[in-house]
Automatic annotation (TrEMBL):
Keywords: Metal-binding, Nucleus, Zinc, Zinc-finger
Record's keyword annotation contains Chaperone: no
Family: Belongs to the FHY3/FAR1 family.
BP GO terms, sorted: regulation of DNA-templated transcription
Gene Ontology CC annotations of this record: nucleus
Species, as recorded: Juglans regia
One Pfam family this sequence matches: SWIM
Phylogenetic lineage: Eukaryota, Viridiplantae, Streptophyta, Embryophyta, Tracheophyta
Record's subcellular location: Nucleus
Superkingdom of source: Eukaryota
Function: Putative transcription activator involved in regulating light control of development.
Protein name, UniProt field: Protein FAR1-RELATED SEQUENCE
Keyword Translocase: no
PANTHER family: PROTEIN FAR1-RELATED SEQUENCE (PTHR31669:SF297), PROTEIN FAR1-RELATED SEQUENCE 10-RELATED (PTHR31669)
């Protein structure tokens, strides 16, 4: 990458790879694939009598519903105690390496929306139909060029559509219109998902200190069992600088402002966001190299 080391790396829990990354890329933020870890829950814990009557839900809540390290530590400690898992070696290992996979420890690092290795594993799909187990090295080189050409053509088509086809706004929210004019269609759809999510958010002003106002934003979230729960997020708004930050850290991790921040912007009658919240990597008016 032009002599620049990657800032963030996602892998599975391979020990050799972890050691190599520490040596070769000492300044990179390394994380484990969350999907690979969570899919092991049944294998490792399904034999527990309470797995389907509280334990699984408690683990999911500790991992996904906590907003900071203190909350995670508290919930993790409670589930270990409540379900008598203090001697479970697998959970002990996960806890020891919690900074590599638990979302609250990974906030503040830009991951472009990735928390799993599935995108890197999609290279299988990239070569699908071009190479197979019997492909020679010479054939691979030729087929690689063909596969790459197809990918470039697909990206060119997507760029053309972004520049010539406009996705309608789903609201009268002026910030949505700002992103409609600037972002590629694919990324704008992600912004729209957050705009839709505003419907389930209820903000309230907690207090103001100087130019900074603090809001509690309660969001109703659907659970896998068809129920719903209320999760609280905290949004900070700097009136003087017109800067906004949410404890969900969606912008810091994915480069898109969250529904909680949008809801506060709506409440404060903010109609245009600062340029710092519009990332060049998602813009459709910039030429790609």
């Amino acid at each position: 990458m032009n002599g620049r080391a990657p800032a963030a790396i996602i892998t599975d829990q391979d020990r050799a790879m972890k050691n190599a990354i520490e040596i070769v890329f000492p300044n990179a933020r390394h994380r484990y694939c969350l999907w690979h870890i969570m899919r092991k829950l049944p294998e490792k814990l399904e034999s527990h009598s309470a797995y389907n009557v509280g334990l699984k839900t408690a683990i999911m809540s500790a991992v996904y519903d906590t907003q900071n390290a203190e909350q995670f530590e508290e919930k993790w400690g409670q589930l270990i105690h409540n379900y008598d898992l203090i001697d479970n070696s697998w959970l002990q290992g996960l806890y020891a390496e919690r900074s590599f996979w638990v979302p609250v420890y990974l906030k503040g690092v830009f991951w472009a929306g990735m928390s799993t290795t599935q995108r890197s594993e999609s290279m299988n799909a990239f070569f699908d139909g071009y190479v197979h187990s019997g492909t020679t090295l010479k054939e691979f080189v030729d087929q690689f060029d063909n596969a790459l050409r197809k990918k470039v053509e697909a990206e060119t088509t997507a760029d053309f559509q972004s520049c010539n086809q406009t996705i309608p706004c789903v609201s009268l929210f002026k910030i949505e219109r700002q992103f409609q004019s600037l972002y590629t269609n694919a990324k704008f759809k992600e912004v729209q998902a957050e705009v839709w999510g505003m419907l389930l958010c209820n903000p309230s002003l907690v207090g103001t200190e100087g130019s900074i106002s603090t809001f509690d934003v309660l969001e109703e979230i659907s659970t896998p069992d068809g129920q719903s729960k209320i999760v609280k997020y905290i949004v900070y708004f700097n009136e003087d600088e017109c800067e906004i930050q949410c404890t969900c850290a969606l912008f810091e991790m994915r480069g898109i402002l969250c529904r909680h921040a949008f809801k506060v912007c709506q409440m404060k009658y903010i109609h245009v966001l600062l340029e710092k919240y519009v990332l060049d990597r998602w813009r459709k008016d910039l030429k790609r190299r």
